[in-house]
Design goal:
766 residues; alpha+beta; Penicillin-binding protein 1b fold; Penicillin binding protein transpeptidase fold; 18% strand
Length: 766
């Protein structure tokens, strides 16, 4: 009998050999599949560098209006820690008799790499008087900006990539001592650690140790879900061995440090020690102290179970256990461990300091970057994006909106957390967006009402109507207009008969009073004179949408806009009729710090400056005499601001848009299901607008008057010239050729009349 025949007969007699061979073939195929999957995904993902987004840098100079207390708040918001002695470590400061001393952090700006350096800041009252480092004085000092967030490809995950040379040695030692003592020796799976964990847990009566290696934990975070099944554990072990076969220990440890799940911030998952350091302590990882690093290592075992905010006592015990293990393994001295154990948890107080993540603002940044960059560039190329976000303004807007909505909910008696709101704040001069709040929970990455909620704007449209009237040359602020019933014939044969908010009429009024007190009838009469088509074109040119339908109802706000679009419109008014497109991004640099793109200011004149100046005088009177006067007691008494209330039909939307010499701010309130709020613009949005403005330390609105206008004292009710002591007057800058009568018994005086007469005579002769 031949050998081959004997082998075939042996196989037939022993079928387990065939099954074994088949099983080995299946296992080999499975391992090959895992090998390809693991290496492909690990190689493709571990080098992804998400774009990091920063706020505006804090720029200091002599003469800057910056009280010491505000600068201290800025430093605390940046994670600078107060010290008693002269600051020597980057990111530290102390108050002195003359001012503040600090040691800045190293930071690569778009135009330079600035190393850590000492800085002494002296004050004269509420202004900075001197900047110096030793005997060297500086004209300008620039501090590192706040990290706003990052643009990472995986939905819901956020992380801040840390290079190996940025990782503290004690963190590495703690991870190995607590999570994987034989990390440098095993090959992905450690049977001895499994056995040791079982013994320790049985002795202690609680789960103190786990048997998974750091590599297995990395596999679970990278490739697998949290289901606790035997099949998942087998895959985890196989993948860990494959990773150890292909990659160095240092690569795996660095990937672990950047990948491990460290907690939840609303819908955002915190991954990696770099972002965890910012989230829990508002500081870079390399600035954390021993007790803080130990806390982060303690949380690895269960970020929800050992959450320092929700479970401080159990988290403290776990942190102290980590410190004892470090001392037992000679990673720190017993004295150092004891000193660290005596410290509090020392986490960042987000309720006092505000959120550390700004999803609404990040959405605006991403939308603007999408015009120049592909999504893969933003999520993998290590770009650094510098923006105009002002952290203190952002925190103020978040806090006041949340508190204001909660107060209105209580007044309404409805179920809590129903009323929604949004805030947009921009720089009046540059058009930079410096704060965006899209929800009462500012750190919630959900529907962004500031950018995406298109709602009827109500009376916010009226400045466009009055601007067209003033630009026509047929009207000025003292011109009369009838606030009487009006019926407008529509193109479909119907008629439209608007009414005033109060249901009353006011006879003949000035344009000034009609706008300040938001009279609907006078506005419609004026708007029909200039034409709804012209009003629609003007509103679009100022920054409104391009598809505005010029129906007569437009004159009372039957047009939907987002808070961001409204901010663009009112920013044009604040800029004297010059439109500056709103921008969130200042510049973008690559991973090496080389500038890629700057976003310069772009300016376009879209309205006559004389007409805008007149219009803005009326918007100032809105807050002094008109629908916004209830805000005066809630803002600094000497602050000059301009703005307009807005209320849509059936009180569904409450708006206020306004500006000072420094800030443009829009506040919107409403329900997401569009039901009535019961709030006007004055009783809702204006109250929150005033509360925010009260804390901004903003400069008054005080533009230079155009040469073509002349200041006159005018009676508010009649529009006639009058002496201040004789009537209820307001000083208005009006066209030099404006023909005004005098209020009987209250004439402006011979001196003013003589000057006006000379002007009229010169005009006639020329």
């Amino acid at each position: 009998m031949s050998r081959s025949r004997k082998r075939r007969r042996t196989v037939r007699r022993r079928p387990w050999l065939r099954l074994s061979a088949l099983l080995l073939l299946v296992i080999a195929g499975w391992l090959l599949y895992l090998d390809i999957t693991v290496t492909h995904k690990f190689d493709g993902r571990r080098w992804d560098l998400p774009a990091q987004v920063y706020s505006r840098p804090l720029e200091l100079y002599a003469g800057l209006q910056m009280p010491p207390a505000r600068l201290e708040r800025e430093l605390l918001r940046l994670g600078y820690r107060p010290v008693r002695q002269a600051p020597r470590q980057p990111g530290s400061f102390r108050r002195t008799r003359r001012g503040i001393e600090l040691m800045s952090r190293e930071f690569r700006f778009w135009d330079e790499l600035r190393p850590p350096s000492p800085l002494a800041i002296e004050f004269a009252g509420a202004k900075i008087s001197r900047l110096a480092s030793g005997s060297t004085q500086f004209a300008v000092a620039r501090l590192d900006p706040l990290l706003v967030g990052s643009i990472f490809p995986t939905h819901g995950e956020d992380r801040l990539i840390i290079a190996p040379d940025q990782t503290p040695d004690v963190l590495v030692a703690a991870l190995k001592a607590v999570e994987d003592r034989r990390f440098d020796e095993h090959h992905g799976v450690d049977p001895r650690a499994l056995l040791r964990a079982v013994i320790v847990n049985l002795r202690s009566g609680e789960l103190q140790q786990g048997g998974s290696t750091l590599t297995q934990q990395l596999v679970k975070n990278y490739f697998l879900d949290n289901r606790r099944t035997l099949w998942r554990k087998l895959r985890e072990a196989a993948m860990a061995i494959i990773l150890e076969w292909h990659y160095d220990k240092s690569d795996l440890l660095n990937a672990y440090i950047n990948e491990i799940y460290m907690g939840q911030d609303g819908d955002r998952a915190i991954h990696g020690f770099g972002l965890a350091s910012q989230f829990y302590f508002s500081r870079p990882l390399n600035e954390l102290e021993l007790h803080q690093l130990a806390l982060l290592v303690a949380m690895v075992k269960g970020p929800a179970y050992y959450n320092p905010d929700r479970h401080p006592q159990r988290t403290l015990e776990r942190r102290n256990l980590v410190l004892r293990v470090l001392a037992d393994n000679d990673a720190v001295t017993p004295a150092e461990a004891a000193a660290a154990q005596a410290r509090e948890l020392d986490t960042w107080d987000r309720q006092q300091g505000g959120a550390t993540y700004y999803p609404a603002f990040l959405q605006l940044v991403r939308a603007q970057l999408a015009e120049q960059y592909r999504d893969e560039d933003l999520t993998s190329q290590g770009l650094r994006v510098f923006t105009g976000l002002d952290p203190l303004v952002q925190v103020t807007a978040e806090a006041r909106l949340s508190a204001g909505l909660a107060n209105l909910d209580r007044q309404d008696g409805e179920a809590a957390d129903q009323l929604a709101g949004a805030v947009v704040i921009t720089s009046a001069q540059s058009g930079e967006v410096i704060a965006v709040v899209g929800d009462r929970q500012a750190d919630f990455a959900g529907f962004n009402r500031a950018l995406d909620a298109r709602r009827p704007i109500g009376s916010l449209v009226k400045p466009a109507v009055y601007l067209d009237a003033l630009q026509s040359g047929h009207y000025h602020l003292a011109s009369p207009v009838d606030d009487e019933p009006i019926t407008v014939a529509l193109d479909n044969g119907d008629t439209w008969s608007p009414q005033n908010y109060s249901g009353e009429t006011h006879g003949t009024v000035t344009l000034l009073r009609a706008l300040a007190e938001s009279f609907n009838l006078a506005t419609v009469r004026l708007g029909m004179a200039v034409g709804p088509v012209q009003v629609a074109d003007t509103l679009t040119a100022m920054g409104g949408p391009a598809d505005i339908r010029p129906y007569p109802s437009l004159l009372l706000g039957a047009v939907e806009m987002t808070p961001l679009e409204v901010a663009q419109v009112y920013g044009t008014l604040a800029n004297g009729g010059f439109r500056t497109p709103l921008r969130a991004v200042r510049s973008v640099v690559n991973a090496d710090g080389e500038p890629l793109q700057r976003f310069p200011i772009a300016i376009e004149q879209i309205a006559d400056p004389d007409a805008v100046y007149q219009l803005n005088q009326a918007l100032v009177q809105v807050l002094r005499r008109g629908t916004g006067r209830s805000a005066r007691g809630k803002m600094p008494a000497d602050l000059v601001a301009a703005g307009k209330t807005g209320t849509s039909d059936e009180y569904r939307d409450s708006w206020f848009a306004g500006f000072t010499g420094e800030h443009v701010m829009v506040v919107w309130l409403g329900y997401d299901d569009n039901r009535p709020t019961g709030l006007t613009g004055a009783t809702g949005a204006l109250q929150i607008w005033a509360a925010i403005m009260n804390e901004l330390d903003s400069a008054s609105y005080s533009p230079l008057p155009p040469a073509g206008l002349e200041n006159l004292w005018v009676d508010y009710e009649t529009g006639l010239m009058a002496r201040p002591a004789c009537a209820d007057v307001v000083e208005l800058a009006l066209p030099a050729d404006a023909r005004l009568g005098s209020k009987p018994g209250c004439g402006p005086g011979l001196r003013m009349l003589g000057r006006r007469a000379r002007d009229w005579l010169d005009e006639a002769l020329n």
